[in-house]
Amino acid sequence: MAALFPMFADLNGRTVLVVGGGTVARRKVAALLEAGAHVVVGAPALAPELSELAASGRIDHRVGAFEAGWLDDAWLAVAATDDVQTNRAVAAAGEARRIWVNVVDDAELSSYQVPARIERGPLQIAISSGGGAPMLARHLREKLETQLDESLGALAQLLADSRQRIRTRLPDLQARRRFFDRLLAGPVPGLLRRGAHLAAVRALDEALATADTGQRAAGRVALVGAGPGDAGLLTLRALRLLNEADVILYDRLVSPEVLALARRDAELVEVGKQAGGQSVTQERIHELLLEHARAGRHVVRLKGGDSFVFGRGGEELEVLHAHGIPFEVVPGITAALACGAYAGIPLTHRGYAQSVRFVTAHCKDSADTLDWQNLAAGRQTLAIYMGVAGLETLRDRLVAHGRAASTPFAIVENGSRPEQRVITGTLADLPETARTHQVKSPALLIVGEVAALATKLHWFGAPPVGDVTHVFAEAA
Predict the structure, then answer these.
(1) Residue 78 near residue 102, CB atoms below 8 Å
(2) Which residues are annotated with the PTM Phosphoserine (predicted)?
(3) Annotated catalytic residue: which of 28, 230, 251, 303?
């Protein structure tokens, strides 16, 4: 099923038909009246509370069984009966008239869903599971109710009342954004929490009077590590910057789940590099960073994993420093740490690996520069950042310099993502195993006795393919 499109509807003065006169209908009617709707309830009989509303003229009552003509003046409809055939008839009639219909507790018949809501004055937060798991939406609503202060309603109302003044004073979008960033980080929210409404108004007025109205302020760049893919691994600082950014320059390996957390009106620019495909050169990335920062924009350079671990982040900062562009760096969880953790592989383990080395070997030329004698030493773990090419060279060099051919390995493909795969084996069979399982990038190779623990300690995604637990047992 396609994702639902979230929308808040203005029902003030508009007719909404509710079919059903029982307890469920009463709850729906109450919410609709709160939104200012003109509510028509169609049912043979009404529950006492609905009868009182009809008697007082707050709702209209159409007596009898549902008729399609009841929908003629309606903007929206709710089927809230315990009769499946009646609910189906309402849904079908609404579909024929292009009128949105919610059938209570029947997502398949409904053309819209009523979300769980959190209300703080004019501020509303809606939570929907698409009708598939309403109890989960309710659970999240109850959890958020305890975390969102009641003063948010007063804050929302104050900002709504001041909206036109703010727009007039700060017609430039970026200037307004900077103003709101300072305002919300300042004393106004705290004053409203204490009930000091007049003091909050004065503080807003003072902030607005001294606001920067410049059309172009100095831009800045944040070099942000996006981690391996699981959006839950982002730092809080990274999340805040994604919500402040005007422009996000992101790499190919940044997951869609991470990008979905960015501010909705941010400009997203892919600047990824891919072997054998179209790539954006590093020089062009430098040009884009300078171009957007000089235009006064807040730029996030979003890189997979950590920007300072095989990410060329240092080169980009050198360019920014040379041109006087202010910057900050937010670390991300690098692939070795994430892949090891999500595959159940401790990179160090007492008795088997007292050190871990991060290595990159993308091609023969880079392989020739590595210190194979030290890399082949025992009692250490190798975390090798690479594509799926060059595995024969890596295996041959390690074995030739003394690493046992029986040393376990684990390839972690798409680490931390729902499609994660872990392939295990021994060093002797490394390239053949990778070909058999058609391993594709992004993938990280872990070599060392600890890799055998993937079979025993895996906890995320599908179990590893292959079994090298006996190697670890023998080593013990």
Answers:
(1) yes
(2) 129
(3) 251
Quick check: 319 and 440 in contact, CB under 8 A? no
What contacts 470, CB < 8 A, 6 or more positions away?
Answer: none
- Helix segments in 214-354, DSSP class H: 236-244, 256-259, 282-294, 313-322, 335-342
Q: Check the annotation: does 293 bind a ligand.
A: no
Residue 20 marked as a ligand binder? no
* Structure tokens, 213: 């109205």
Residue with the two structure tokens 């950014």: 245
DSSP state of 262: S
Active site residue 440: no
Residue 135, marked binder: no
Distance CA 263, CA 302 (A): 14
Which position among 106, 273, 429, 467 bears the catalytic label? 273
Tokens 């030493």 belong to which residue?
Answer: 377
**Residue 451 marked ligand-binding:** no
| Ligand-binding site membership of 338 (annotated) | no
pTM of the prediction?
0.68
Active site residue 273: yes
Separation between Cα atoms, residue 389 and residue 435, nearest integer Å: 10
Q: Walk along the chain (476 residues) and give the pLDDT tens digit of each residue.
A: 678 898 999 999 999 999 999 999 999 999 999 999 999 999 999 999 999 999 999 999 999 999 999 999 999 999 999 999 999 999 999 999 999 999 999 999 999 999 999 999 999 999 998 888 889 999 999 988 988 889 999 999 999 999 999 999 999 888 898 899 889 878 899 899 889 999 999 999 999 998 876 545 568 999 999 999 999 999 989 998 998 899 999 999 899 999 999 988 899 999 986 655 567 999 999 999 999 999 988 899 999 999 999 989 999 999 999 999 999 999 999 999 999 999 999 999 998 999 999 998 765 566 778 999 999 999 999 999 976 778 999 999 999 999 999 999 999 999 999 999 999 999 999 999 999 999 998 999 999 999 999 999 999 999 999 866 555 444 44
Q: How far apart are CA 175 and CA 212, in angstroms?
A: 7
305 is in an annotated binding site: yes
Q: Is 82 annotated as a binding residue?
A: no
CB contact at 8 A, 117 and 126: yes
